[in-house]
């Protein structure tokens, strides 16, 4: 079962993952009812790069999405696919391409999730920033204004609930306008 919505923005990715997906109930490498197509270390790395962000199991592959639109995919042992409007900084080492997603105009780029040529802290910082940029970009591709980029309902303007902010009513009904901030 996939938790990634079947939206037009996800169609190419879902087709690719669906083709590779193998239903599996039991075994060492089962991921939400599918054969895991990502090394467990890379699943953990993805979780570390986006703490508190839900990882969606999609046909045996972990995916991060914003507003239901896929933003980051972890595949194999050494590939992070990121959805961005332009290529990631040259400082980040790319991973092997993943056609058709990484074909020109596809909007997906690959990066190595380990970045061994950078210091560990710098690698994690740059990759975390890249993941956040991909999540923001994916959210911008959504036409759904009823949810925020993390998928939470957005409250319509003018329909506040709860206490109304403003002046506190005075005790005893006496109005003390003009005396704010003065001692009693």
List the helices and strands and how they pair.
Layout: H1 11-20, E1 30-31, E2 34-35, H2 40-49, E3 56-58, E4 61-66, E5 69-75, E6 79-83, E7 108-111, H3 120-140
Question: How would you describe the overall organization of this protein?
Answer:
There is one protein chain. With 184 residues, the protein is of the alpha+beta class. Helices cover 22% and strands 16% of the residues. The protein contains 3 helices and 7 strands; from the N terminus they run αββαβββββα. The strands form 2 sheets. It has a 5-stranded antiparallel beta sheet. Strands 1-2 form a two-stranded antiparallel sheet. β1 and β2 form a beta hairpin. The termini are far apart. The model is unreliable at 159-170 and 173-184 (pLDDT under 50).
List keywords for this structure.
disordered C terminus; 3 helices; single chain; five-stranded antiparallel beta sheet; alpha+beta; about 180 residues
Short description:
The chain has 184 residues and is of the alpha+beta class.
Identify the strand order in the major beta sheet: 3-4-5-6-7
Overall mean confidence score, pLDDT: 82
Instruction: Please report the total strand number as a whole number.
Output: 7
Query: Helix segment count?
Result: 3
Strand count, sense and closure of the main sheet? 5 strands, antiparallel
Which structural class do the helices and strands define?
alpha+beta
Beta-strand percent range = 15-25%
Written as H for each helix and E for each strand, in order along the chain, the element string is HEEHEEEEEH
Shape annotation: globular
Q: Which stretches are poorly predicted, pLDDT < 50 over at least 5 residues?
A: 159-170, 173-184
Helix content: 10-25%
Ends: how far apart?
66 Å
